[in-house]
Amino acid sequence: MKKILNSVKIAQKELAKLSANERNELIFRIASKVRENCAKILAANAADLANASDLSSAMKDRLKLDEARLNGICAGLESIAGQKEVIGEIKKGWVAKSGIKINQIAVPIGVIAAIYEARPNVTLEIAALAIKSANGCVLKGGKEARLTNLAFMEALNSAFLPLGFCSVAFLDISRDEVLELLGMSEFIDMIVPRGGENLVRFVSENSRIPVLKHDKGLCHIYIDKAMELQKALNIAINAKCSRPAVCNAAETFLVHESVASKFLSAVYPLLKEYNVEIFGCPKTAKIIECKSASEQNYDTEYDDFKLNIKVVASIDEALAHIARYGSGHSEAIISEDYSACQRFLSEVDASCVFANASTRFNDGGEFGFGAEVGISTNRLHARGPVGVEGLTSYKYIIYGNGEVR
Amino acid sequence: MKKILNSVKIAQKELAKLSANERNELIFRIASKVRENCAKILAANAADLANASDLSSAMKDRLKLDEARLNGICAGLESIAGQKEVIGEIKKGWVAKSGIKINQIAVPIGVIAAIYEARPNVTLEIAALAIKSANGCVLKGGKEARLTNLAFMEALNSAFLPLGFCSVAFLDISRDEVLELLGMSEFIDMIVPRGGENLVRFVSENSRIPVLKHDKGLCHIYIDKAMELQKALNIAINAKCSRPAVCNAAETFLVHESVASKFLSAVYPLLKEYNVEIFGCPKTAKIIECKSASEQNYDTEYDDFKLNIKVVASIDEALAHIARYGSGHSEAIISEDYSACQRFLSEVDASCVFANASTRFNDGGEFGFGAEVGISTNRLHARGPVGVEGLTSYKYIIYGNGEVR
Which NCBIfam families would you find in this protein's record (chains A, B) (predicted)? Predict the structure, then answer.
């Protein structure tokens, strides 16, 4: 493994010498090699699926590729290549009192390691984001997608061939070896775990290398007394039901008591269309049919068609509930009241705070980043959806004319 | 300790509700309380010095305060208060394809813990930087400065008095308790160790909390064949001799062979004025008197009047030497050759890379930051001198109009 990591470390320096155009061309070449090898990749994926008889149907769906999905992945790569160049950007510049001219310049971080589960699209997305930002990268995917990933890597390697180096490595390693990987700060500058809570916890607790992660996505929608009903219904249903298994989906609605009856009786039949199981506070239970919500419910990221509803007496109560149970991921207010929105946006401490939009927009693609390395709930380095810019560091280059201190 | 940390965590939220002006006034009030209590603080400092008979004279000098130094510290605080406001700044903003308006806003990190050695100025500087950036802070100073620090904290607490909370705590704790502190990620968001290599290593190896640090300052001055002699002499002597104990001082001169004789014979008498002990390569030894430099020498941060000199055949050899031995802290080229400077600035991977200026400028004060939390050789979050901006995180606030995904 050390040999592979060292080769990536060296290749990263070569990659960083390429021009922006050359790096973009490399990403386009990977996309076209993937398209060329479509049949081979789909066959590998079919073999992975055949081996995965014990997976849930949701997991199988995540794992499964077809021509349309493959085209989608390639379009994503091309979109990453088409993003504006981040490396070398002068982020700031000024002349200090001494006369030296200080430029803060974006540079690559170095080598990124991503550890993820069965989604095969992650392999190429992270590889492309790393190439775009001139970082080396080391990938450890889930064993369920092993053959698919190896087929992807074959296409990727052939795209690197004309360059004489390869700054992306796929590690076909065991969990014990992952533990070893987490200690290799000599070769790796940042670790990104992408997957369930267990994976993220395992990585954070064992890593000697900085970890970019999100712990948990326990998101709320606060329906203020000044809500507009149609907007509130659209956003609430979108946030809960459009894709409940993802981290930016809502788990709890907080409803101002003065609109509780109106909102809850309107949202109830919509939730029932999706067979959402509702856990409500006593006031909710007086308006709609629901199970009784416990502390435990308010503290749970369901990732499923389950929902808590709590009627609150004021925005203060909503803010306090979010401060207590929120995971700092995505929070939204639905209100036509200017000051209520401003207060919510200002006081809620989360990576993305929304006024009158769905929490589902906390996403690299929706932010216009082409793709994302992941969503960060860290407070250091990068927060929220992390695209190529989150994969950069900076250095200061300083132009002097003989200045001394 | 948990009780203290929790009170800081709560107080930080109060601090963050203050306006920029109120936070600046608080810092000014601390400076004036320190000035008012000058006699008391100097008496405490004298008592610390009396207890510190086993310290080296350099360490005693670091510890010692007098009225002039105290005024300097207060002026530093006032300069921090006078810096532009960082909290709430819209760092970026754009409209996404969906129509949502995305604003990236600077916010405090939360609670910062600083662990440092005998320099008493650090206590107030870090407290002021934390207040400026609306962060809570927890300070653990060296036991040698204990009484001085307690006197500072008395002045600081009296400045907080009108507010009814205090977001700065000084921990009077043992090394075992420091170990406990490093595990308290529930209360602390970032740890800054400021001190020698042992302290930094102890903190990095034991912390469950992200650490902002610099490992080592092994800095080089490369004197190119196109150097201008007077600039080269000024910068080289400044970088080595103006304050050799600090991390941005130079440890090694790399001299292009075509100017070796000219530069070395001119720099030699200047170095001798400072009694600098020279370790040279065989080519250096042919030009000036020196001891023989080993691998070990090139790899040592002396922090003292000791210097390595190596004659190199080309800029390539200089770049390779820096890549091998440099610590990524501060590196400089002295050259009138445009392309040589550009290449050096671009290829050297360090927090600050200088053309024709002293490495000593890698400093928060010199950068115009008022003061610094420290100099970072991390590649994530912040690199180089870290001022108030390095103590901020960001969040996205998003204005929608009913958008869903």
Answer: PRK00197.1 (NF001221), proA (TIGR00407)
Question: Which pLDDT band, with edges at 50, 70 and 90, does B56 fall under?
Answer: confident
ipTM (interface predicted TM): 0.94
Mean of the pLDDT values across residues A277-295? 98
Question: Per the structure block, which two tokens stand in for A99?
Answer: 């006369």
Write the CA distances from B76 to A186, B69, B81, B132, B146, integer angstroms. Answer: 38, 10, 9, 13, 21
Using a CB-CB cut-off of 8 Å, the residues of chain B touching A366 are 96-98, 100, 405
CA-based nearest distance A313→chain B, Å = 23
> What pLDDT, on the 0 to 100 scale, is given for residue B53?
84
Asked if residue B63 has pLDDT above 80, the reply is: yes
Res. B244: pLDDT tops 90 = yes
- What DSSP state is assigned to residue B161? G
Judge if A2-212+373-399 and A219-365 fold alike in CATH terms: no
User: Is the separation of the CB atoms in B218 and B230 below 8 Å?
Assistant: no
Cα dihedral A41/A46/A51/A52 (nearest 10): 100
**Side-chain-facing half-sphere of B401: CA atoms under 13 Å:** 5
Q: Is the pLDDT of residue A155 over 90?
A: yes
Residues in contact with A137: Cβ distance below 8 Å, sequence separation at least 6, in sequence order: A8, A111, A112, A113, A114, A126, A127, A130, A167, A168, A169
Alpha-carbon distances of B258 from A361, A387, B225, B226, B264, rounded to whole Å = 61, 47, 6, 9, 11
pLDDT in tens, B175-191: 889 999 999 999 999 99
**Which tokens is B5 given?**
């940390």
Is B324's Cβ below 8 Å from some Cβ in A? no
Mean pLDDT, range A185-191, rounded to an integer: 95
pLDDT of B300 over the 80 cut:
yes
Q: Is the dihedral of CA B258, B261, B265, B271 positive or negative?
A: positive
Position B118 scores a pLDDT of: 75
Q: CA-based diameter of chain A, in Å?
A: 78
Q: Where are the domains of chain B?
A: 2-212+373-399, 219-363
- Provide the 3-class DSSP secondary structure of residue B276: coil
Beta strand ranges found along B244-299 (DSSP E): 250-256, 277-280, 291-292
Of B234, B366, B381, nearest to A96 by CB-CB distance is B366
**What percent of chain A has pLDDT above 70?**
100
CB-closest option in A97, A350, A398 to B354: A398
User: Which pLDDT belongs to residue A185?
Assistant: 92
Q: What is the band of B389 on the pLDDT scale with cuts at 50, 70, 90?
A: very high
Angle subtended at Cα B388 by Cα B387 and Cα B389, rounded to the nearest 5 degrees: 95
Cβ–Cβ under 8 Å, residues B377 and A332 = no
Q: Are B222 and B315 in contact (CB under 8 A)?
A: yes
Residue B182: helix, strand or coil by DSSP? coil
Q: Measured between CB atoms, does A79 come within 8 Å of chain B?
A: no
In the DSSP assignment, the letter for residue B390 is G
d(Cα A28, Cα B239) in Å, to the nearest integer? 47
Q: What is the dihedral angle through the alpha carbons of B369, B375, B377, B382, rounded to the nearest 10 degrees?
A: -40
Q: Is A338 on the interface with B (CB under 8 A)?
A: no
Cβ of residue B349 closer than 8 Å to a chain A Cβ: yes
Coil, strand or helix at B318: helix
Choose between A201 and A354: higher pLDDT: A354
Query: For residue A381, what is the nearest residue in chain B, using CA coordinates?
Result: B381
A118 pLDDT above the threshold of 80: no
Return the closest-CA partner of residue B375 out of B171, B192, B128: B192
**Assigned CATH for A2-212+373-399:** 3.40.605.10
Spatial separation of the C-alpha atoms in residues A239 and A305, rounded to whole Å: 11
CATH class of B219-363: alpha beta
The one-character DSSP state at A359 is G
Q: Which superfamily is assigned to A219-365 in CATH? A: Aldehyde Dehydrogenase; Chain A, domain 2 (3.40.309.10)
pTM given for the model: 0.93
